[in-house]
Amino acid sequence: MTTLASLCMVGTLIPLVLVLALVLVRGIGRLDLNLFTQLPPPPGLEGGGIANAILGTLIVVLIATLISVPFGIMTAIYLAEFSEGSKLAENVRFATNVLSGVPSIIAGVFVYALLVRSGWTGYSAVAGGVALSILMLPTIIRTTDEALKIVPQEVRWASVGVGASNYQTVLTVVLPAAIPAIITGVTLAIARAAGETAPLIFTALFSQFWPNGIFNPIASLAVLVYNFAIVPFEPQQELAWAGAFILVLLVLATSIAARLATRRRTY
Predict the structure, then answer these.
(1) pLDDT in tens, 197-247
(2) DSSP state of 114
(3) What percent of the residues of the chain are helix, what percent strand, and what percent coil, each to the nearest 5?
(4) pLDDT value of position 265
(5) What global pTM score does this model have?
(6) Is 59 helix (H, G, I), strand (E, B) or coil?
(7) What letter does residue 29 receive in the DSSP assignment?
(8) Could you give the 3-state DSSP secondary structure of residue 174?
(9) Which of 216, 149, 142, 227 is nearest to 186 (CA)?
(10) 3-class SS of residue 7
(11) Which of 168, 199, 207, 230 places its Cα 20 to 30 Å from the Cα of 239?
C-alpha cells in the first residue's frame, strides 16, 4: 500500500516537474534587463521586452485585490461570526462554492456584457480587475471563513467576559488571530488571478504600449503569452516563454509568501 501511494505521489509530481523544467529551459535564456524595461518589438524583429505586460499585470491584479479583499473578508466575518443558524449564510456558502467552480471565461463574458459592451468602462484595466475579482472572491471568502472558525470559542468567551462587545471581540481578538491564514488565502487568490487569460481577453484586451490609465486597454502577461505563442515569429515566441517563466516565478513567490504567513499562525 505504501509503495502504491508513493508511486501515485511520484506520478502526481511528474507533470509539475516537466512543466516547470520546460518553462525554465525555454524562458530563462531570454531574461535580461531589456525584458523588464522595454516594450515588445514589432512582429519578427529581435530585442525589446515585456515591461508593459508586467506593469499591466500588477495594475489589473491590484484593482482586483482592492475590490475582492474587502468584500471577501467582510462576507466571511458575517458568515463565521454573526450568522449562526441563518439560512442566508447557508445560501451564501453554497453560492460561494458554486462560484468557485465557474469557468473563468464565464466571468470574463459576464463582465464583458456588464461593463465593456454596455460602454461603462469599455476594454480597460478596470473591467479586467472586476473580472479577476470575481474569481478571487470564493478563495478569499472560504479561507477567511475557515480561518475565523479555527480561533477557539474560549477566546471569544474570555473577551466577552472582560466586558468587550461582540464587535470589539471580532475586531481586536478574533480577526488579528486569523490574519496569517487570511493572508494565505489572499495570496493564493492573487496567484490564481495573475495567471488567468480568458477573462482578460474579454475585458482588458491587450496593448503594445505602456499603460495609459485604468480606463484604457492594457497589456498583461497571460494575454501576452497567449498572443505571442501563436505567431510564426521566433522573437515573439521567445518573449512568450519569458513571460510564462515570469508568471511561474510570480506564482512561486506568492506560494512561498503564503507558507511563511501560515507558519506564524496563532491557533
Answers:
(1) 999 999 999 999 999 999 999 999 999 999 999 999 999 999 999 999 998
(2) I
(3) 75, 0, 25
(4) 58
(5) 0.90
(6) helix
(7) G
(8) helix
(9) 142
(10) helix
(11) 199
d(CA 114, CA 91): 24
DSSP H or E segment with residue 178: helix 175-194
Please tell me the distance from the alpha carbon of residue 105 to that of residue 196, in angstroms, as a whole number.
Answer: 9
Q: What is the mean pLDDT of residues 117-144?
A: 94
The string of pLDDT tens digits covering residues 9-29 is 888 889 889 988 998 899 888
d(CA 24, CA 146): 35
213 touches 178 (CB < 8 A): no
Give whole-number Cα distances, 175 to 178, 210, 216, in Å: 5, 39, 37
Residue 255's pLDDT band, with cuts at 50, 70 and 90, is confident
**Banded model confidence at residue 266, pLDDT cuts 50, 70, 90:** low
- Which grid coordinates are listed for 18? 516537466
C-alpha cell at 38: 522595454
Question: Which grid coordinates belong to 10?
Answer: 511520484
CA distance 221 to 154: 47
Length of the chain: 267
From CA 152, how far away is CA 142, in angstroms rounded? 18
DSSP at 115: I
- What is the distance between the alpha carbons of residues 220 and 235, in angstroms, rounded to a whole number? 18
